[in-house]
Each structure stands twice: as C-alpha cells, then as structure tokens.
Amino acid sequence: MKINSNYLKLENNYLFSTITKKVEDYKSKYPKKEIINLGIGDVTQPLPTAVINALHKAVSEMSSKHTFRGYGPEHGYNFLKTAIRTYYEKRGVFLEENEIFISEGANSDLGNILDIFSNDNTVLIPDPVYPVYMDTNIMAGRKIIFMCATEENNFLPMPDKNIKADIIFICSPNNPTGAVYNKDQLKEWVDYALSCNAVIIFDGAYEAYIQDRKLPRSIYEIEDAKKCAIEICSLSKNAGFTGTRCGYTIVPNELRFEGVHLNMLWLRRQTTKFNGVAYIIQRAAEAAFTEEGQAEISKFINYYMDNAKIICNTLQNMNIWFTGGENSPYIWLKCPKGMTSWEFFDFLLERANTVGSPGSGFGKNGEGFFRLTSFGDRKNVEIAMKKISSILI
Amino acid sequence: MKINSNYLKLENNYLFSTITKKVEDYKSKYPKKEIINLGIGDVTQPLPTAVINALHKAVSEMSSKHTFRGYGPEHGYNFLKTAIRTYYEKRGVFLEENEIFISEGANSDLGNILDIFSNDNTVLIPDPVYPVYMDTNIMAGRKIIFMCATEENNFLPMPDKNIKADIIFICSPNNPTGAVYNKDQLKEWVDYALSCNAVIIFDGAYEAYIQDRKLPRSIYEIEDAKKCAIEICSLSKNAGFTGTRCGYTIVPNELRFEGVHLNMLWLRRQTTKFNGVAYIIQRAAEAAFTEEGQAEISKFINYYMDNAKIICNTLQNMNIWFTGGENSPYIWLKCPKGMTSWEFFDFLLERANTVGSPGSGFGKNGEGFFRLTSFGDRKNVEIAMKKISSILI
C-alpha cells in the first residue's frame, strides 16, 4: 500500500500547535502567571439565548418516537436553507435553495470542495493566509502560486494578468490580516477569474464583522460572480458556533466548467461522503438567523468590535502600523523595533504574558507582522493592552 | 479550471434516490395507501434517555460564558475517547487514546480516510456492498477489484492469493447482506493483508448487533490486526445517532507503511480539514457508553432484533433462502419466483405496499437478491410480513 506522499511535503509544525507548546512550556516554568490569549481566533461569548432555546427544543424532539429525526438530507434541511436565503435577500443577493449546502463548518468545506476539481489545476493563494488553503492543496499535489500581500498593497493583493490560475482563494475580511476588499476590487477579481476561466473560492467566514455598509459581505454582491465563484461561510464567528459546528457553502447553478455544473458535482460529493449536519444543530443555526438571534449576535459582534477598538487605539497611540480591526475581528500589526514575528511572540509572552499569532506562521510575507484577535474577554483585552503599552514605551 | 473528471465515471442513479422516486410516484398515484419502509437503514426509536439528559446538560453549559466551549480538539475530547477505550477493553481490546479519532459519522470517515492513501493503489471491495466504498474510490480514480460475495460462499468472500490488493474494505456485520465473519475468517484476511502489505478498512458500524459471543465485534480481536487494519465505527445504528452524527475511527500506532505512521497522516488530515465534532454531541456520545446508556441501547437493539426474527421466521416459513438477521439488522433474501431485484421491489411495493432495497443496487452479485431491514416499527414489520406472506403463498 502506497501512502499519499504529498503529505510528506507538508511542513511539520502547525502554527497553532507550536503556539500551544510554547505557552505550555512557559506555564510550567511560571505556573502562577496568568496568560491572556489573543492568539487563536476562538470566540468567548456563550451561544445566543435564541440558539440555546432552539437546541433544548430540538433535543426534546429527539426523545420521542413521534418527533425523532433520523437521517436528514445530506445537503441540509429546507428550514435552514430558507433562513439563509432570507439572510442573503436582505443585502440583495437572491439564491435558490438547491444552491445552498449546509455543512459542519467552513473549515471542512474549504478542504472538501477541492475534491471536485482536478489535481492538475494551478491554485492562487494569498500570502500570508489561513494555512488550510495551502495545506489542503499540498495534500492533493496541486501547483500553488502565491500572490504577495504586503504593507505596500495594504495586504489586499490584486490580480496579475501575467499569472494564469485555475482556482483562486479569496478571504475577505481576511484571516489573518483583517483587510477587506471593496466592491471595485472584488469586481476586478471576478473579471480576472472570468477572463482566465478560473473558479474563485470565496471564504466569507467573517462577513458579519463588516461595519461599513459600502463593503461587500458576499461575493455575489458583485455582478457576474455567480458565474465564477463558490462562497463558503460559517456560523462560528458570528453565532459562536466554533464548538457547535455549522456552516454553509453556496454553489450557484450558473457555475459551469467543461459543460459540467459544479453544483451537481458538489451534490454528488456530499451525498456520497457526508450524511448531513445533526438535526439539533441545524435547528440551532436556524434560530441564529431569526430576528431575536440576529439581535443577540449584533451585541456579541459589537462587544468584540469594541475590543478591537481598544487594541487599535493602543497601537495608534504607539505609532505601530496595522491593518484590520475596523471591519474584522483581526488586527494585523507590524512588529515594533524590527522584531521578527516569533521574536515578538516571545517578547509578548514573556513580558506581557499575552499570546498572539506570529505573522510568519501564515506565509513568508507575514514575517515581521503579528495577529491579535478581538475575541477575548473585555477585561483581559484591557489588561493585555496596558501591559503591551508599558513594555513598548 | 479542470473538474475532477473521475466524477463523470460515477453512475448516475444512486440507489436510495431511485427508491425514493419510485415510492413518491406510487404515492402520488395511490395517495391513500400507507407504505411501510423496510428499505433504508435508518433507526426509528428515539435517542436513549441518558443521551437526551446529557444533551440538555451540555446545551445549558453552552449558555454560560463560564462553561461555554469553543473549538475542541479536532480528534475529539478525551472524555469520549476514555469511554470508547473502556468499551473496547470489555472485549479484551486495548487502545491508546491517540489511536481514537472522534468523527461526525462513519460515512464521512470511510470516504475521508482515503485522502491519506495514494491514488495509485488497487482497492479490493466486496460485491455486493455499501455503495460508498466504490463511489469514493471512483472519485479518486483508483483501480477497483471486486471480490464476489455469492450464495455459494454465504456472501462471505475469502482472500484469493492470486489477487494483489493494497486497500481492502471489509464490512462485518455486512451491509447489505447481514453476513458476519467469524474469527478464523477474519484471521485469514489479516494474514492476507500482512502478506501483501495491504491495509484493511474495517467497517464495524453494526458491531453492536452481534448476539453470538464467539463472533468478533472488532477486527482488533484478531491477532496482528493492529499491524494492518483501520476500524471505523458509528453511533448511528446502536445509539440512534443517524440524525445526530457521531462516530469514531481507530488508527493503531503500530500501522506503518513506507516507514510512515498512518496515525500521524490521519492526525494531519483531521487537524487540517476538520474542526472536530460539536461539544454537545460528544457529551451525548459519552452518555451512550455509560452503563445506563448501554442498558437502553440493549433494549433498542433487542427490539430491532425481535423485528429481525419476525422477518426471518416469515421467510423460513416460505422456504425463501436468506442470510443475516441473526447478528445483524439486515436480512438478505433471494428473490422468490426467479424475480430480478427491481422486479421484486415493484412487486412488493405494489402488492404489499412495502419498500425494501433491491440487491442489484449494491453490485452485480446482488442481482436476484433483496435487502430488508429490521429498523421499522414493530407493528409495521408485522403488517408487512403478513402482506408478503399472503401475496407469495
């Protein structure tokens, strides 16, 4: 039996496991120190009450033979698809129910969607970027081209007509940089994809953090995007589903390559390799899209965005260059005093007992940069920012 | 962009969707007829009380900031792994916690596990068989060899030393035939796999239905199996999780190919393409393995096995050849009067208003055979069996 030798080409140290190890080592050395984690992008607020109530109700249904649910549709229940359709309609995007596929999270679908594409395609990926785009394509042996995101382009790389790509990953608001494309910029990407017959995988996991109403929250707000783009979204960062697991993927009916509808291929993939999301979780997700659910989610997002403001203000006061934080839970800063990303990581851990994510872990252009997230507890964010201010002044 | 053209080699009609369509057509023609479904392998009993209680408790935890859970370990929480370890220990199988990976169901893992193997491998699959083994390998473009399961070998094909395979799928108790390998037979498979350096993917989704204590419920009850086998299990058919989604995959530390530990490859796959199972679902699964949970599960299984007895007795009285039903929820019968599988399907639907699964949908050796499942409601099983008796005598 031959293993998939592409796996051997993966780098050994996964960013977050390295961070965890470093923090654990520090903790065992200084067990009394309290560490504040502004590193991993995990939420800290509980599930909205509307979601909790829907979960209890659905669990009770599962306890009676008459309301018990066994296998559901692999692509998701219509009640949830309808809720998502309505959510999109509010910003002028009209979807068919069969274009929406309920998933157990954006992370899985970002990897799994690649199943329906040939391994011969060339992939265009921003650098720095969420490591999953790169690793999943290395696993399949695809050729990868990186587009440089730098301080000069505000970490928003634009298409280069000299480069020919087949699959383009775009994440906006971006993880890790927090940078957000405007409509004109996304239109350039759509035009580029159409011109070279490429498909865009649009990761919209952070769309709910966009405060500026002029910025696009879905790629389908851009003309012709349905002819070239798949959109992958999640309930993790808005409704707090990081530990509850639900997302959705949109594959428009208009998307055709080599005369084949990608929607049909994805449907086939999902009905073969997936058995759908738990009924109780889909009811929870449905509740997140209700008026009550959305009102609670707004509160959580405001809470996190107020954290972001505290971080941004601190950085501004210290004259540290950064992007993000305005329409995104991520703040991407230039390491002060010419430190490398890991040097700044160690510096913050040891001197401010604060954990962030080294930018170099997201790609070579991330070197010298650093990601802070606004998902922490308010008090912790304030303490961390005070400490950072005091050690850097 | 080039699509994965292997998808175009898949057959268009998925068995269960064809069944659904035929049933819907019949219903729209005769709206007053009540149809009894002994076709799809879905459970009908509610979740055990222990599971329901654990779910409510875990949901409540998610409502408070202090007990809320965000991202969990991608490979699962230790509390559930410990429960599974203990479950295996009772039958003398000792596992390490890192060998157990919690999944959102056996179906996904049966497809996803193939990620870590080269597409150049040759796959050995029983015919007839659960269609997922075949379809997922067609999607990856692997060469498939079928091993014939027939009336002559009681639908339990044994290794053929003239055939060289790299990946071997074994399902015992088998879906769709209900046939179960004994220890000597599984030992032959383990020896064969070791002799040709192959890996066995052992699908144990129905292990809880084994009544005969001499029959192996895990492949690891066989000497040296840890050197060649991955085991994939599910809570769907024992704890009623078909709509709640939880399973587990065991990748022993001893499994090495080309000097690489498969456990490490699978860990890398899961930490990259998966974000773990919902916390509340893992608590539900943990409850299923408690003494209280297991006692309730036994009751459900006894209920289904009593259904199986009713079906078996009816078939015996009519002198219809069948296998399964004794240690499995599936009864695999030879269609009477020389009917083909689909002829018998139509005959049962029209004359007894009962739905089963045509054996030919599971492979060419399934032609002329038919699958009935014991997951139905008792009263429905009794009505269906009476009707079948009356139309066949």
Automatic annotation (TrEMBL), chains A, B:
Pathway: Amino-acid biosynthesis; L-lysine biosynthesis via DAP pathway; LL-2,6-diaminopimelate from (S)-tetrahydrodipicolinate (aminotransferase route): step 1/1. Pfam families: Aminotran_1_2. It is an enzyme of class 2 (transferase). The keyword Cytoplasm does not apply. GO terms for biological process: lysine biosynthetic process via diaminopimelate, diaminopimelate-aminotransferase pathway. The keyword Transferase applies. NCBIfam families: DAPAT_plant. Belongs to the class-I pyridoxal-phosphate-dependent aminotransferase family. LL-diaminopimelate aminotransferase subfamily. This is LL-diaminopimelate aminotransferase. It comes from Clostridium isatidis. The gene is dapL.
